[in-house]
């Protein structure tokens, strides 16, 4: 034993084991073999999670479908339900619009995650 207490490292995020140890630059769980970077885990926890209308977690580059018909200011036709939007980009929410995407026939626009479903 090196004299370290069991509270020096966080428990394993996979199995909850308290017997984790450090193997530079990772933390390792001897019970399930899971290895993780504690700094990356902290950064991931800090990032907001954006979910679609049914609770799927969205990420940059995902393809989504519009779930309800949307009226668009200045456009003669609405964006119809079922329209596929490819390669979305998540942005900081402004008025709830947290997706930046190019919609075919309408161009670049911002959408709310609550009106799309991940494919």
UniProtKB/TrEMBL annotation:
Q: Which Pfam families match?
A: YjdM (PF03831), Zn_Ribbon_YjdM (PF08274)
Keywords, in A-Z order: Hydrolase
Residue span, Protein YjdM C-terminal domain = 50-118
InterPro entries in the record: YjdM, YjdM_C, YjdM_N
Q: Give one GO molecular function term.
A: hydrolase activity
Taxonomically, which superkingdom?
Answer: Bacteria
Keyword Repressor on entry: no
Q: Where is the Protein YjdM N-terminal domain?
A: 9-37
- Family membership: Belongs to the YjdM family.
Q: Which PANTHER family match?
A: PROTEIN YJDM, PROTEIN YJDM-RELATED
Question: What protein name applies here?
Answer: Phosphonoacetate hydrolase
Species this protein is from: Corynebacterium pollutisoli
